[in-house]
Fold each of these.
Amino acid sequence: MKRQMTGAKMIVQALIDQGVDTVFGYPGGAVLPIYDEVFQQNSIKHILVRHEQGAVHAAEGYARSTGKPGVALVTSGPGATNAVTGLTDALMDSIPIIVLTGQVPTFMIGSDAFQEADTVGITRPCTKHNWLVKETDKLSSVVHEAFHVATSGRPGPVLIDIPKDVQFATGIYTPKTTSTSHYQPQVKGDLEEITELVAAIEKAKRPVFYTGGGVINSGPAASQLLRELVEATGFPITSTLMGLGCYPASGDKWLGMLGMHGLYEANMAMHGCDLMINIGARFDDRITGVIDSFSPKSKKAHIDIDASSINKVIRVDIPILGDVAHVLEDLLKIWKSRGRKTNSEAVAKWWKQIEEWRSVDCLKFEQKGKVIKPQYALSRLEALTKDHDRYICTEVGQHQMWAAQYLGFEDPNRWMTSGGLGTMGYGFPASIGVQMAHPDATVINVAGEASWLMNMQEMGTAMQYNLPVKQFILNNERLGMVRQWQELLHGERYSQSWSESLPDFVKLAEAFGAKGILCSDPDDLDDAIMEMLNHDGPVIFDCLVEKHENCFPMIPSGKAHNEMLMGDADTQNAIDAKGSVLV
Amino acid sequence: MSALKIKKGATSHSAYNLRPNFSDVVERHTLAVLVENEPGVLARVIGLFSGRGYNIDSLTVAEVDHTGHLSRITIVTSGTPQVIEQIKAQLGRIISVHDVHDLTVEGASVERELAMFKVAGKGDHRVEALRLADIFRANVVDSTLESFIFEITGAPEKIDAFADLMRPLGLIEVARTGVAALSRGD
């Protein structure tokens, strides 16, 4: 039966048919018809954010923590342009979100109308795909196609721009059907290539699994298969920032995160391995260090669903185009059928070498005196929350790296951080999205005071919906990572990297009607964290920490994995002129 | 699709070479990109090239399948083999792109371009221009007492050569369509 309805109703109906339960948004003139439909239904919860960037990050947090696409609804013009940072963030980190924007009516497009912007033009490079829908009859099928595109292949953000007259007009609703889209990315890997990887696994003397966000995006089955593969082969495993949780941090094969601020043993294993198995990672520059000296002696295999990721940065020997779960399933099948062989003697020797690197204990620190070290704060947060049903978000900077180093993730989808784009201001709205999806979980945003201020307006959202998100702010009154680079690269000239006139965070919390906790004494820290956890409602935790602490280990710009800085003593002339142009 | 002689779904097998060579030699490749004929699709393709710093030596686009809403974009680009592989993979990622074919590596192909040359002159120059046009099988499509417009079709090298010859004879304006290309045989 053909169903006639308005474009605005179609949007809501299509979202319901797609299984959407939550939309993050902010109304405005060009989306009023859709908001009118939102008002007249009870299937979808609408969360009113305080800034459109917050809506998109919240949708990202929702998506990353559930594996389902997140949805944001904003108005034309400034609503759309404010969404751009979130869209770019989602594109860089392959997060499936659908952003719906209002547009001026079709007959006014191009006339520089009030709150008009060329939204599809502006967002073309920061979406996986976008649509301007000029006919109401096409609206519902575009929404269904948008969900298909956002979630298939390498996931990513999509945007639908909907002129106001299209929302008012009546058309025929197309129900959700199995996709007839020509966009059907290949998920099965080439069996010959997979067999070649199996042969390499059988022979490897110094293997390492290098995993990334692709494992998490592939779904829970991928993490399960990865765990099976790691246990069965006994090979060491490291992960990028985006992949934390795909293998449990408590697992004995776990080397910790790799990369610029990765663990010594992880980076040394990457440098010294003879077989590198990249599963769903993309050889990002934060991972590789200087390309010419990246893992010089290894054979490299790369499993990725995106053909453009393969051989983009690092030349690989065994390319496998496909979805992680599908490829790992075939890989395990073939490896088992060939007798589950590994070179266990050589691998045992490799582990002995790794244990030596591990014994360096690169994350050790000493908490002495009356000033809280940020590492200590995160160690205590880890100790006091690891048994919780816990989700961690972060902002961007030193605190983010310390969180990745000192917090342990046992499962996928528990760690929400802005990896590729490095968006300060991501974490707080993301924590709101996570808490919406997991109302009973402990959701903590590990933040720096500077990042957190970038989207602090979302306190209003947290209060309105009584979302008990915990804002754990490591306050050093500095842009810590900028300060660290100025110390290493710019002769300790700290240009604009400290914040004067910071707010009193406790009073700020109280101004919103939330709870604020100030902690400056290491002896009070445990009690203060418990007070935060036990409070049923949003908390701003102002943790005053050592102001000049640097984040180590660190691969300085222009250096290789085996040239890490382990502490302040190593930093003299650590970066040469060639390295200093890198970011 | 039959009119285009391009097999459906060929993209993942034919255009991408996941085991490319990594030489530093810059190569010229002609790519045939079959796209959905919809607003903004050309901007997606051009934006990819400008955003990622790739070269466009020539680009032509026109609808080739009205019922299937498909347009064919022919791009001549240059880069090292690794860059060419990246360009193809990045093009393949665009949702509106149905197929990417690298005519330079997928067997023999034919390339043609149409150009118009306005040549102004008197006396011997005018006669010589006509004589050369005849040799190049260029047609006169407009004439005044002091100028000709020649129309010429051929491979880009032939058109370059004709332009070189016309320059001293009073060439004042050129319009070129860019390359259209098809692979040979079935």
Amino acid sequence: MEQRWTRREWLATLVKTLATLLAIVYSIPTLVMLVVPAFRRQKNPWIKVGKADEFPVGEPKAVTLSYQRRDGWVIRTVRSTVYVVAKPDGSLKVLSNICTHASCAVRWERSRSAFFCPCHAGYFDAEGKVVQGPAPRALPEYPHKVEGGLLYVRLENV
Amino acid sequence: MRKLLDWFERETGLISAWGRFWTQPLPPGVGWGHIFGALTLLVLVVLFLTGGALMFYYSPTPDQAYASVQYIEHYLPAGRFIRALHYWAARLIVPLIIIHILRVFFWGAYKRPRQMIWVTGVLLLLSVIGYGLTGYALPWDQKAYWGTVVRLKIAEGVPLVGEAVATFLRGGDTVGAVTLMRFFVLHVFVLSVLVFLLVAWHVLQVRRMGVTPPGVRVNEEASVEKTQRLYPEHTARIAVGAVILSVLLISLSLVFPAPLEPRANPMDTAYKPHPDFYVLWMHELVNFFPPNLEFLGSFVLPTLLVVLLLIVPFIERSPERQPRKRLLALSTGTLTLLIIVGLNVKGMEALPEPERLSPLEKRGQQVFVELKCYSCHGINGGGGPVGPDLGLGGKRDPEVVRNLLRNPSAHNPHSIMPAYHLSPDKEAALVAYIVNIGPNSKMPPIPPTEPEKPASHFEDNWFVNHKFEVRKDPGNCSDCHKSFFCQACHQNRRPSSHDAQWLKFHFGNAAERPEMCAACHSPDYCESCHKVMRHDTQWIQQHGSRLAQFGDKLQWAGQTMHQMCYQCHTPQSCQGCHSGALPASHKVANFLRDPQVGHGKLALKQGATSCNSCHQPQFCQSCHGLPMPHPEGWDSNHPQVGHKNPALCQRCHSFQEETCQTCHQAPPSSHTEDFRKEHPRRITDSGASCQVCHGRNACLNCHKTPMPHPKNWGETHGKLGQQRGWKGYDAVKKLQKAQCATCHDIKYCNQCHQP
């Protein structure tokens, strides 16, 4: 059945439509600006470690990395240390130097051929596996790649 | 849901109040002219919305404010649009309010009982201007900083309170962190609360008293029949106006992003802040007064205007609303408006011509940004503090500019500007642009650098002080800069550590803090020198051959390798070893004398070049007294030398040598038969020539006494006997007989010694 709109009804619909339209037009970009960046993940960059063939086989080498990290509009220079383990077969492994037990920094002890954590006397072998002490897991390994003879590492929260 | 709403209505009454508000009846004359109040409110809502969103990301500290605005502009989705929206809404709200005020003024709508609505309206206008003044400072770019500095300076000119107000706003003596925070809080909190209260009061009063019916006398309002309602009739007009306004606002925001100048630089003396066009009338006003009365124009007249505006409803109290019957009021208002507009137009003429660029110059501007010229040069402010500001210094000659680009140090030997060898079209464009830069030019928009410069780079005197920062931690610089970044300047001006003594000390520095070197030099820089010159354990053995091979061939910084040795070593340092620690060949016994293995043989065998690797050619002569080995034609020349200094020959040769005997078998012509007897008279050279053949002891062999007799022989000859161990009278006799008598008669003694 055909319904005839009165002038009032027509205007009311117009007002409601336009008001909704304006609300959408103004609020959507605002919400986008507020919401979207919060869910954007910062991709960890590949950080140059050094020449891949210069790491001594059998002895993990500590490398201090310095890289830029964006924290909103502040850009910070962050330093962190990783151990590069060169295996006899030529492959490399990049280990975190943070003990999995209480997040102390481990160091390579040449005399015992093991990573030593000074906080609770934990030991890890050259592969990062727990040998002794309270550490629940092996030392985390970071993904790495070799490009043009250079070793790059991506420091992910592992 | 329904129940919940009912409950809410029961408890608060807000829902019915909301309904009553929108359905309020309006008099018949309310039409399109009445939408501007609502539009102003809409724009205010947009400002609150976008401003609130911006607040999520803005950081009101001098070192982060600009970075956070850049973050909003370049990294946030829709951030640029939201900021532009805020900017353009702020620009539009002032004319909207003015239109609204004019409408109210011409309609006489401020008359009894609505005087206070007018007053709050004027206060709202002032608050919005306050918003503009405080919001201006927040991006902390050049315009924000210098604009704020200038405004606070103007505020200081106000008599009595001016200085106190300016100092309060500044929060101290200088515009800085405290100022920025104050402006921020005023902008987002103080003014917002004020405006919220004023708007609520303003709107609710209008709701309570109703919209003024146009053209109706003050006392006759009650008789006007209200024929329409706010919703939907008038809201439809408002909605249409709002859509048109929004289209304008959004397209302005999309096409013209909010400007952002280079980061505020308090040290920048070249920046010229220009007043915005809507305050030009005030500048013109100021110009009417002599300098000592300037505050009349900058403060008294505007204040009077504001006060006048505030009390308009209390001055014009006639009940008439018909414009025809209020000619005096309307003409006064119109005149004031025309004066302000006229002054503004006049002020705009005085504004500098905006920079106009030809396509070529436009291209040059791109090249300027591409090459990052702005990191050293400003254009009327902005830009780095290193090179001269290009906005200064008058008209430039294209040829000079071109030469300067190609070789800056030809113009000024101390210039640290790197040379640019560009393709011809790029160079032509850049030169055209630089020539065109004048006092009205502006720095082109600079894309944000990734990562943004750290705050330290904006410190006072950063350029002068950067060397200290480098010394603290050179690794900090190399996080962002490659080594050639330093070299661009430091090729022509070496760091102060690299003084004349530098070579001597560089190793210690390099060994202790290699990262200091790495800050400027690439890792292979050391090798370029040290591959042939390294003071390691093998160096002692190698240095001779290396020096012989490269000593005068290789050069670093204009010095040969040999000269570089003398930076640390003196020529005597070689002697320290080479007088004692001799080459193996020099160690054989009797090296100096032995004719078989001695130095002469060696020199003859290997040639003097071998000697010359250590010894100068004059070295032989210092002993031999003549060039060695004997020069050409020696056979015929040597008698002259031999006659002059026979001892010279005897150092090496004895007459019995075969070489001599081959020629000199026969005695010389002087040795006649009576020579033995005659020779004392013939010898004129104290026996030197005798020694050539007879050896050094030629005289002594026969005479047993030094011949010829030394000086003072008369006194000393007596001791001769004692020396030989003879004593007494017999001894004298014996001496006479054995020695003296060979030449002298006994009577000869008696001349002195009486028997």
Amino acid sequence: MPVLDRGLPIDDRWTDLADDQEIPAEGAIIVSLERWRAERDALTARRDAIGVRLKSNQLATELAADLGALSLVALEFPKFRDGRAFSAARELRERFDYKGEIRAFGHIIPDQYLFLTRVGVDTVVVPADRVGPAWAHALKEISVAFQPALGREDGTSVLRRHLKGTVPA
Amino acid sequence: MTEMTGPTPMPDTHSPAIRSNQPADAHAAVYRYDEFDKTFIFERVEQFRAQVERRLKGEITEEEFKPIRLMNGLYLQLHAYMLRVAVPYGMLSSTQVRRLARIARVYDKGYGHFTTRQNIQFNWPKLEDVPTILRELAEVDMHAIQTSGNCIRNVTTDQFCGAAADELVDPRVYAEILRQWSTLHPEFTYLPRKFKIAITGSPNDRAAVQVHDIGLIAKKDEVTGRVGFTVYVGGGQGRTPYLAVKARDFVPVEEIIGYLEAILRVYNQLGRRDNIYKARIKITVNEMGADKFIGLIEEEYARLPRQKFYVDPAIVDAIQTHFAPPPWLDLPAVSDSFEAAKQADPAFARWTRTNLTAHRTPGYAIATISLKPIGGIPGDIEADQMETVADLADLYSFGEVRVTHEQNLVLAHVRQDDLYPLWQALDAVGLGTANAGLISDIIACPGLDYCALANTRSIPVAQRIAERFSDLDRQHDLGELKIKISGCINACGHHHVGHIGILGVDKKGDEFFQILLGGDAGTNAALGEIVGPGFDYDGIIDAVETVVNTFVKLRQPGEIFIQTLARTGHAPFKEALYARA
């Protein structure tokens, strides 16, 4: 499925493996948390990058000790209304200082895209028939952020802007 | 404009705003948008306009459009769309009230409905008009953001804030900080369920903080003078009512955002998502146990990057300027003309007994405008009436109007000298009912007349109770008595905290009404208990009267209903209700 970065499809180097698929000798792969735990030694013995998928009911803490070995964490949205992954992403970045790629996949709508980037998600997996200008547009619709988070727009949050003397006296 | 009658002083004799050629609502304590806020709100309107266009063209499904429209206050009700407009912590300027009147007239059927969360609803907007309505709101610093959906909702507070004599800390500046913090919060916009925060700064809780997901009581540390909050968590009404538990006795103001981030993050990760009826934070707290839940909050808070969420005192000061006290005059504590008017006009005197609250400044009073005329729909107000209220606010209360969670309006800073002409003008348009806090000041949900979830009617029950007790002298004799009516177990009419609560249930296709006794939304918060089997649509009015007559028989001098009930217990009421059958 197409992967978007900053709203645009990118060439993706990752292979997302189901638990019953054989592990290829080469290439970057994403496996489930369960498989990561069961086959950790075999997976880390490979030369190429490894990512782990978390289901929405699996907290970021499940991976806390492993993050150094992982180049990607993929967070599932079983339904777009299930917002647990927003907190998982933020915990990965803010609490565990994770610097690798965070990817969101599953049922995601463009109207969530800006929020995802603001909690630390880098890439989004989108079904082919859903790729369109709405994604890039969604990142530009709202230019003001009211609270500190993890996005590039952090500088305008209320916690800072009122110190710039912009409030009418 | 409303025709003023009686001894109305000229506006320019006592309105500093008008005298100095400022707008009449220059001192209204509403948060005024700066350039950032304006950029944001108009971007948001255009975003929604594009979303509506995509929906009308069929590019997104109704399922996908639903959370988008909900996040912009747009519900699909029984007969039509309903737009719920946010009134942040209940504060409005007269300019904003006039704009609401215009929206009611142009885009709706000429009226609006104030809600128990201090917001206003329009019941008949067309989908294609909604982006334009939102633009009209944006022009007066208003919006409908997060008035529904599984996100942090409008923060509610004490309707008398900044004016009440008993207030320790003005909560509005903090409510505004929380409003901004929660607006389009990237992490907390797809929560397990809706999330309601209430805040009060008075020891007499008028914001019902203990029946909210988070309740904050602002206070000042007596030794250090620092302002902070007692934080309650896990309260709520609905099907499974709980009073909130205390999470922390004192969180200093500078740390409140970080502490709330911790609470919301724990809830967002661990709140139930398998069952909509078990998804509120109150269920999480009670299934997990309060101690364990609070432990998780504290752990999360301990490891947050606190500096990032630090609320600098300079921020508080900057926002505080929006809520500066209006320029009250030095007045004698007693107004001769007010006293004389009370003597001369018994109807006015009666209104002053129920609809006035003590102001902190000598010579002023807080006036409650009842939106509960006998036989009317609780909380409804016509466009013409809104404009009258706006005019009167300009003349008598610095152009400021407040909405109460009991679905009334308040003019918070009225000179005692002006109370009589104010009441006369209100009375002339049907807004002078002397029943604040009395048996006909009923909270009722929209019920089956509007709502797709309701099992029973609610508004007509309220109307018939008010008609049964239409004699104002009888109402005044009964004293404070709060009836709250919900047309289903979702409890939008707050029946759990009514002195007399009424819950509509469906019984094999017929409407039935249960009575609860002993609820209280105040400082001594309590949940009412169902007294016995329900009553049919006709029987419920008689049953309420039976309860009331039993109270009259049992009361001791000076007692109000809830006090008598606490003294006697439910038994005599139960007996009166069911023994005669």
Amino acid sequence: MTTTAPPAPVRSRPSSPGGRGPSGGVLNKRRGKVATVIMLVLAIAWLFPLLWALYNSFRDYSYTQTNGYLSFGGWTLANYENAWSRGNFGLHFKNSLLITVPAVALTLFLSSLVAFVLARFSYRFNLTLLGIFLAANLLPPQALLIPVFRMFREIPLPEFMSSSGTMLNSFWALILVNTAFQLGFCTFVLSNYMKTLPHEIYESAELDGASVWRQYWQLTMPLVRPALAALATLQVTWIYNEFFWATVLISRGDKYPVTSALNNLRGQFFSDTNLVAAGSILVALPVLVVFFVLQKQFVSGLTLGSTKG
Amino acid sequence: MARPAPRDPRFASSLPASVRGVNRRTLLSGALGAGALFGAGSLAGCGSDDSPSTSGGGASAKAGNVKFGVNEAKGSGPAYERLQGMADAYAKKEGVQVSVNAVDHNTFQESITTYLQGSPDDVFTWFAGFRMSQFAEAGQIADLSDVWPIDGMSDAFKQASTASDGKQYFVPISYYPWAVFYRPSVFEKNGWTEPKTMDELNALMTDMQGKKITPFAFAAKDAWAPMGTFDILNMRLNGFDFHMQLTKGEQKWDSPEVKKVFETWKTLLPYHQENSLGRTWQEAATSMSKGECGMYLLGTFVVDGVPTEAQEDLDFFTFPALDSTIGADALDAPIDGFCVAEGAQDTEAGKAFIKWLGSAEAADAGNNAGSAPFIAANSGASTAKYGALQKKSVEVVQNAKNIAQFLDRDTNADLANTVVTVALQDFIKNPNDIDKVTSSIQQQAASILG
């Protein structure tokens, strides 16, 4: 968990002005120790609640009720079974999948199109456009709650797309809203990344007679794959974790994504905290899996863009 | 929709209920849209003014496919089972389709505004009192005065279903009282009896403290929980009418009457569990069930918070009179029930359904389907499935002259949930600064209630 600075290359002291050598060793031994301790403390502070939830998710509620949460024992797997069946997680995981995958794909596709144009061509309004995308990104989504809600209420959808007849209560609404709110960030990252691609490639492509579409699809897209992978990881996490819009735009219990459905485990008055802990672990798992699987892309993708620019 | 509901049966029953529900809903969803559209068109053409108020025949003539919004998640326990049971019984009886939209209780309540303005179901579960009245004034729920009177519903229930314009907008199904709970075995062991007067209660509390038992379990982490104490003290000290006027903004929160409530509460606080701000009601209920605390003022849902072996060993009494001129005949007993959404696709089918929901037959259908019963509002409903606590609840509520709905249902939701909750927690933190607490509520109440 704690990624400490490697002690070996530290010896070459960075005393010279601006001495951040390519080896990256800016920490001497003592500083390295301090950094390790700080990171350890922070890591524990962050991990403790998660581990505590994990620990208690394997314990029986009536056991912890009588013995307190500081006790040891009462092991059971029933919380997970109950959480899965009571929370109806099978259905809600499917809902989350149906929202997240199209939303991420659409976001990446649209933002790469914009980013390509912004990075590749120089129009007078390029910077303004990028500015607008960024500015919109700073707007808190909550501020747009009422306009979006009213707008979606007025947009009719055919019966086969939404049983309510409007955008409300349909996955389309959630896919669109999530796409819209993530576009700004993705465009920003991708356009910066695309700007780092050598211009000569495009010149030779042009000489070979490649159309703009071909330059985008067959030249740029393969080259920005690390950035796309990094963004995909982030976007899956963010959209999957999105809770706010789902509860606002959807009022049918069987259409909630899994994050909103976690509330199914709480009763009106009574809530079995161990059961909720088990449910939360289940809900958090996909994000963790995506993150660990794509971790390499994630780091390399983001840092590549930053250092080259 | 709280009720004595044993925890274990709830889990055991969750699987079949949810499986049944999934199949039903996916099967129905396609057919339903078309049916509802036809139904709405033809019925609207007939004109909606002729009322089916007199006979069940009239209502059944208009029965149609109906969408039913339910504030309990699918498979979440007895409360869901009862609502689903009622929906199934109606569907079978009338040969119509009832499509149940089950959303968990808290989410349903928090998103009620967008729900009603978006695409609400025809009939949905809701609460009596100001919370209902608020939507009636906003024109978001349908006038049900042609559904009333309902056989077996007393005047008190009709009153609770009436909004400020004098019309009914609500049909009750069940209720649960707030009272002082205790374990009879603990009382017996110590030779205690239920206190009938404040003097007896004082003596009891002193005796408990002498035996190293905290008299009252108390929790304020769930911010609504202390409202129960405020309600009962206000009703005992200033009377039911004053309490209701206060909730409607006709009396001032910084009046000497309200200050007296807090003064009295302050003298009682030493008899309550300390550090209540960090304790949930479930933890408080646990400490009562363990015998660390003698009593706990809470709704009957306290049963859910105690271990199974203690569930059989629970009894309650109503809070004794503090002022003999006012007596002890008022209590909190929140009523749950149903409304018809104004923006619904088929209001007429909704009305037919809601009229049936008010009947004793519906209550019985619900109680037969649930693994634990509710206390039916309809006096004709069978009490065969009631446990001892529920039988006593019926008696207590029937003997009560006035019934309040609980502070957060009796007043504006914003005032209750954002102002009063914080103020009560401040008071518990620092019981000496009553003036500041009351004047802060009054200031904000004036701006919220207008």
